Amino acid sequence: MKTPDADFIIVGSGPAGVSAAFPLIAAGRRVLMLDAGNDAGWEDESRTARVLGSNLESLRADDGSSPKLQTPVARGILERFRRESGIIGDGFTPVASLVRGGLSNIWGAQISYLDAGDVAGWPIDIELLQRSYERVSQRIGISTNADLIAGANSGSVLPLGATAAHILRRHEIAKPADGSFRLFPAVNAILSKARPGRAACDLRGDCLYGCPSGAIYNSRQDLLALQKSPHFRLLDNMRAISLKSNVGWTIGTADGSSFSAPRIILAAGVLGTAALLADLLPIGGEGLRLLNSPTLAIPLLSPARLLRSATATHSLAQLGLSLRYGERASEYVTGAIYEVGSLPAQSFVNRMPLGRKAGRAAFETIAGSLLVATIYYPGDQSRSYIHREAAGKGMTVRGGFADGFDTRAKDLKRRLRREWKRLGLVPLPGASLAEPGIDAHFAGTLPMGAAGPFGTSADGELNLHPGLHVVDGSVLPDLSSKYITMTIMANADRIAHRLAETEANPAL
């Protein structure tokens, strides 16, 4: 019998994969990580190359997606996934990654934490999840935006943009009639103070272009620390394409290699994990249910800030918000408010009914008074399914919304208009509901605690296949409207600590 290559093989180098690796190597387990990407990056490219792209990708026609998905870096990541994964969308935009660091290369970096109400019914201990939140927070570095004019209380803070600060002060003065609407400084995985190998945010607004300073957390950074351990090994350009049970598990890769271990940890993202498990799950005609967050984008004008110049800040979320729309625990939306002056001008100029030169001039005049709010609904408002195509020819994700969602969305816009008015904001034409998938908030395909062929244990172990564990968003039983990357990382950390404690001694 072939000697196992490791005690655990982790598939994927994104936030979930590295979060699972740390507890295992700390316990002395031998970990092999297979990465579809490699160490090549864009950190050393000039700013012009990062902004425009080697083939002038930034000048392509606007496709209506989020500005962060139209940068050269994002286009390259998403196009490679679409080209090599065999996953396509039908009324759904499949957002995933096959590069080193996964989607942490282009994520929004906003941080949210689930509470006891959010995980009611999950087969986990909320206190254990909270401990994992704390461990992950300390590792990745988190800062809160603060109005430095008014003064920050304590902790790691970054300056709040002037327009965002103005809106937050309006909120504090003109309190909402009830507690259903909340507005607060956003919390982001970005450094306000330098760490070894990572500089503090320089407020240049390069957040969407790869953050050359390393201030925004990227799981590539964690790989440098992991590789210092004698228990960890990382293999580049190893795209996993098959899984076979053979006194343990064997993974086959696209180049014909194979690797074996008693236990496999899948951290390839919801879409990547589904593709890898396609031959092992009875995905019938109905398909595999996928939760994703319906997303609204709303442009806002602050007349009080007209003709004011934008202030130096980062281009991540400035403010966070939440609004409850029903009585059930899950019936609330969350969102973020961004300052448009810190976002790429071209994405907005392309949408103006003006020529390029006139559009840019108009944008520069009003940019300091413009905001964009993104609003996320919980996953139960989506109706998306992953289907396996005939003869194993890839997979298709068909997207849609829950029955009655249009009515709920209209009601939400009405309720938000009341809040915008209170804050002195004017909603502009152009509010849009994004195509399912663009949010990249995916969960629920292999829920923890569920019975049946698609369920997994509290440790993310597949009911049908002992020894296969999933630690990405696939195993989250529900998808609240909160940003989920931090929860995915914390849950991966929790599962890995459990495996490190309960598994047998490392293989010889």
Could you please describe the fold and organization of this structure?
There is one protein chain. It contains eleven helices and 23 strands. It is an alpha/beta fold. Strands 6, 14, 15, 16, 17, 20 and 21 form a seven-stranded antiparallel sheet that branches. A hairpin with a 4-residue loop joins strand 10 (249-253) and strand 11 (258-261). Helix 1 runs parallel beside helix 6, helix 1 runs parallel beside helix 11 and helix 4 (126-140) crosses helix 11 (485-502). The two termini are 13 Å apart. Residues 61-65 have low confidence and may be disordered.
Number of strands: 23
Q: Please work out how many helical segments DSSP would assign.
A: 11
Q: Major sheet, described briefly?
A: 7 strands, antiparallel
Global morphology: globular
How far is it from the N-terminal to the C-terminal residue, by CA? 13 Å
Uncertain stretches of 5 or more adjacent residues: 61-65
Average pLDDT reading? 87
Radius of gyration: 22 Å
Q: Determine the strand fraction and express it as a percent band.
A: 15-25%
Helical residues, percent: 10-25%
Derived from helix and strand composition plus strand pairing, the structural class reads alpha/beta
